From TrEMBL:
Belongs to the ABC transporter superfamily. InterPro entries: AAA+_ATPase, AB_hydrolase_fold, ABC_transporter-like_ATP-bd, ABC_transporter-like_CS, Galactose-bd-like_sf, P-loop_NTPase, Xaa-Pro-like_dom, Xaa-Pro_dipept_C. Pfam families: ABC_tran, Peptidase_S15, PepX_C. Residues 237-259 have a biased composition (Low complexity). Residues 261-271 have a biased composition (Gly residues). Residues 654-882 form the ABC transporter domain. SUPFAM superfamilies: alpha/beta-Hydrolases (SSF53474), Galactose-binding domain-like (SSF49785), P-loop containing nucleoside triphosphate hydrolases (SSF52540). GO terms for molecular function: ATP binding; ATP hydrolysis activity; dipeptidyl-peptidase activity. PANTHER family: ABC TRANSPORTER, ATP-BINDING PROTEIN. This is ABC-2 type transport system ATP-binding protein. SMART domains: AAA, PepX_C. It comes from Micromonospora humi. Residues 234-275 are annotated as: Disordered. Keywords: ATP-binding, Hydrolase, Membrane, Nucleotide-binding, Transmembrane, Transmembrane helix, Transport.
Amino acid sequence: MRSPLSVARVRRALSGHPRRIVAAVVVVVLVAAALVWVVRPQGPDFRTESALVSVRSGPGGDEPVDLDTTLYLPADASEADRVPAVLLAHGFGGTKESVRSDAEDLVARGYAVLTWTARGFGRSGGQIHLDSPDYEVRDAQRLLDRLAARPEVRLDSAGDPRVGVVGGSYGGGLALLLAAQDPRVDAIVPMITWNDLSRAFLPESTGKAPTEGVFKKGWAGIFFGGGGNAGSGPAGLSGATAAAPEGAPASAGPASPQPGAGPGSGSGRAPGGAADPSCGRFAADVCAAYLRIATTGRADAAAVELLRRSSPAGVLDRVTAPTLLVQGEADTLFPLAEADANARGIAAAGTPVRVAWFTGGHDGGAGPTSDSDRVKFLTAQWLDHYVRGDGPAPGDTFTFSRIAGFDALDRGLVATGYRTDDYPGVTGQERRDVALTGPAQPVAVPPNGNPAAISAIPFAGALGSLLDGVAGDIPGQHARFESAPLDDPVDVVGAPSVRIRAASATGEAVLFVKLYDVDPQGAATLPDGLVAPVRLTGLPADLDAATPVTVTLPAIVRRVEAGHRLRLVVATSDQAYASPAEPAVHTVALGDGPLVLPTVDAAPIPTSAAVWRWVLAGLLAAIVVGLVVVVLLTRRRHRRQDRSIHPEYAGVPLAVRNLRKEYADGFVAVSDVDFEVHPGQVVGLLGPNGAGKTTTLRVLMGLTQPTAGEIYVFGHRLVPGSPVLSRIGALVEGPGFLPHLSGLDNLKAYWRATGRPWEDAHFDEALEIAGLGDSVHRRTKKYSHGMRQRLAIAQAMLGLPELLVLDEPTDGLDPPQIAEMRRVLQRYATDGRAVLVSSHLLAEVEQTCTHAVVVNKGRIVASGPVEEIVGESPSVLFEVSDPDAARSVLDRLGGVRVLPDDDGALVVDTNGTARSEVVAELVRAGIGVDRVVPRRRLEDAFLALVGENSRGSGDR
């Protein structure tokens, strides 16, 4: 059934006057706006229930604790229309408000979402046990019971809700541990979380146990501080979204893995009692373990056991819920190897597992929008299939991403996603071997690790890559080994490895191994600030006796371009880790074997951003092709025109015929200019300011189009892009040079751009004209105005063009240089060459030019040889032996007037008195008369032609 606004009526409306079209469009827009207003959401399409829920947990399941919860329910959820559920956990230091935005996105997809503030944080009671199976995990089990009791939640069986668990960092660890402990969980999405908490905080990159690990004091301090202040300290590991103050919304979308730094909230005390100031709301055993490790920098077996109690590593074989593991590449807290260990442990039990790496993490946030959108899609796809039962199985393809550049619209970063059918792990599918070179090097250990290199900075690990050469690696405290420039690019996806040797009189060494990407200019980048800490024991004092050890560096995703080098740095300190207290000196060398780089053969994932980039690229390409076609057609037309030569002007360097230039506002800059420049002539273009001189030259050089008239150069009609322009050298509207290049290099760059043969440039003649001497090798940014002017004239003379056009060539030159320029122009106008020069120095034009063209108010008022324009003169020039005495004699003659002259000669207006009588009077006074010639200056003729007060209306 058709709308009342039928197609025929629309056609009739659009076929009339343009005003009808506008009216029709307005009607359609208003109707559409009204429809949008009618159907727009009138508010959130869900309801919430907040409550302080009391649950019982602990080893015996009988210790009460109050948890601050909020349940989000779709508006239409009911006992008759049950919906699946999601248990949404926040990151360390956050609260339920940290994930509110995620909860709203999930409830909009039709899920009942239960959020809560974990024990020890915010308004919830209890103490922090670091996701202990007896405490935080049992708390979550009681929340599953609560979901099972809700009439709106779909059940698999009595007491078994249809539920997925989503969380980041602290919440991600909980998701894994809960799935291992409670089979009711149907799917989980753990993000940026750990496998072994002891290894995460006490890493050792040669494979030793955490008791031999190097304490990650920077992150551990923030971790402990996040809960040590009773829930009100920094939210060091907020996880799924940025931790926000109680009651404040978070901004991330569904399950966006963005770490945050906002505080949780709370009274600062655990409910029911005062907090221990040493431990805040941490449980006593957790607090004691931290204090022991932080004091000694080493972990004992009891501390490792406690941390492993809160680690998924030992229970992954019990996880039966399909698992989507999302891990950040920019993460110095829980690097990619943690997710790799979780994936392998879960897959070994036959449980479906999918792994996704993205460009964010604890140090990189949610990554670019294009990347966080990909993670949101994967999360929704996983939950929809395994929890709600919709859509095909997501499969187990591996995806990762890499920063690709900037978005053309908002200038934000864009990440390109890649996929491969099989998960390669951090070892990659293939390997690329790169040889490193460098001698054995001594490295000093600073006392107590101070000063320390800065590589990994919590929440901003990638910032360490910006500190190279400033505070990155401390001189004397690191050794460097480098590769040759790469012949072709390599895409590193995984954990590189290398073998090193070390010797020390102490028998032990703590080292920090890093891999830099060094560009051809020497700028070094440490990918995401990732460092491999190593503790070597049983070292010999002599390096020759040292056994090579394999160091596995953190997994990265990076494209190393061709021409870049790889630099392996072995340092003795790092700000993020605990270092030995005693100073020492070690010797470090490369071991046997190359640097091994893992690679993955993956295909790009199409995204809307990528599609739009291709559309934009296609549009730009079409524009470029169109412009090229227009230029080619224009040139072709001009070439057709240039084939014909006006026979009358074939041997004339320049012929200007009836030139007129009128602007859009009606201003007439040139109304009727008509002149010629012939071989051997130096023609001066003269006129007051605003007369039209510069406009004439601009038209001549193709810088602006004339309204009417023609210009011929050697018989060719002059048009923009005409090949005959190559026979003209010009200096119009001042010189322009690249300031970072020398004068000579500027001249060479200019000539190279012309595409003409190198031998035709005549550099020696041009440089002799410029007279710059050794200054021609200096950068032009250090040139004076006069030096730039001389260089510009030399550039105009490159190739010895047959027609030279100069606008105020003596501007900025001193008197000796002006005199030299006069001789240069006169010499240049030989062998059939010609010069057109515009100048306001009439005396110079008179002494330099053979011909002159006088323009006033856009018209030629005189043209011809200079002597003809000057004409007969009533004044006489006297060259005498004593000018002062002669002046006194002539002043006494009636009617004779002595005129001022800048050159010191006598210019006399005889006013009808015979010249012989004047000469006789001077001789009688004993004054010798050497020469008597008629005298009229060009200036006199110029003023007579244009008037002393004449001025133009403003040249353009």
